[in-house]
Amino acid sequence: MTPPPPARTDAVLAGLDALTWLEDTYRDLHRHPELSHGEVRSAGICAARLRELGYEVSEQIGGTGVVGVLRNGEGPTVLFRADMDGLPVREDTGLDYASTATDTDREGIEHPTMHACGHDFHMTWLLGAAALLAAGREHWSGTFIALFQPAEETGDGAIAMIEDGLVERLPRPDVALGQHVGGARAGSLHLRPGPTMSRSENLKVVVHGLGGHGSMPQYTIDPVVVASAIVMNLQTVVSRTLAATEFGVVTVGLLHAGTKANIIPASAELHLNIRSYDDAVHDRIVAAITRIVNGQAAAAGCPREPEISAYDQVPLTDNDPEVIARVRAALEAAGEHVVDGEKITGSEDFSWLPHAWGIPYAYWFVGGWDQAAFDSLEAAGRLLEIPSNHSPFFGPVMHPTLETGVRSAVVSSLAHLGAAAS
Ligand code: ZN
Ligand code: ZN
């Protein structure tokens, strides 16, 4: 693997200081968070900036999705993704640019809103990188795609763009890249090959019994008892099906049956959440769940087989080792502070995008916590006091977080783009 010559990276990054709008754009996006699928204003800001920079811009893909394409001669195509949505959280950071905004969700309910997951950084970074790559286009060749995705928080924004014909609308990328801000020390970049965020899937299970009078169970097949047996037996899935070294979670988060104490209901419903870092492990978990559900229903003599359906499927984020190695080498050559990333139990819908083309990808984390505050908490063994993403107190510092994320987006993209045409 050969990282790009530092000279070329330096030449493109030299324009960073001239991006005087970066901070204002960040403050503006931060003050105006929008809920998933309603990112109209944010999308408008991204599209307008891309147009100004000379990108071919497509809007309203999968709702509010925006894509800018910069064709710069022969060479590889790099897709860089940023998500745009905020969260229904009332900001309590005390920052002078804190959000006081509200937004209405798809059910018509108004919420205080906040960029509590830092997607305002993601947009600003990508706009900054798009600007530097456009200004420095004589230093590389190929095609750069800046993709602004709606609705990451609801897990269905990437899919919405794909279902709206994303693959047909874009030049085929060779690689997809993305990055997320978090509570690590500002200026640090956290990369790991292989699984980096978990796969998540929900299952809805409906058990069909035979309803009747609570005093006469002999005429019924009680789905409450079947559902209860299922819940208890599901506890063996992780403990007895997986190796002690394998990660998996099976949670029954919802169990519903019946209307009244003396009526045996006709059916019961269970909703399960499954997490894993490995698709094969996921498949084994689902197979074990299916056996237990069907087996318990059969044992009770249920008149119909249970129904099992999956929803809210968020894929595994499983970094391609070669792409990660290439990005890491380029970042280190550019003088960035790179550390080994840890697995995150949360999930991201980013990898649906590379899956749509069957291309490799890398996704990493950018520290955003004030360096002095981080160092003193670390020295005191109190790092858990740093608010996590989604907290009302989640307040990454603007500097150097803005600059770090723009540089890492540029450096990682240049690591995959072609050399300048001579
Ligand atoms: Zn989030
Ligand atoms: Zn996020």
**Cα radius of gyration in angstroms:** 24 Å
Compute the number of helices.
12
Spell out the CATH superfamily of the largest domain: Zn peptidases
Structural class: alpha+beta
Helix content class? 25-40%
State the low-pLDDT regions, or none: none
- What's the β-strand tally? 19
Please identify the top-level CATH class of the largest domain.
Answer: Alpha Beta
List keywords for this structure.
422 residues; alpha+beta; Aminopeptidase; Alpha-Beta Plaits; 2 domains; 9-stranded mixed beta sheet; elongated; binds zinc ion
Notes on the protein architecture:
Strand 4 and strand 5 form a beta hairpin. The protein folds into two domains: 295 residues, Zn peptidases (Aminopeptidase); 115 residues, Alpha-Beta Plaits (2-Layer Sandwich), CATH 3.30.70. By secondary structure, the protein is an alpha+beta fold. The strands form five sheets. Strands 1, 2, 3, 6, 7, 8, 17, 18 and 19 form a nine-stranded mixed β-sheet that branches. Strands 12-14-10-15 form a four-stranded antiparallel β-sheet, covered by helices on one side. 34% of the residues lie in helices and 27% in strands. Helix 2 packs antiparallel against helix 4. One zinc ion binds next to loops.
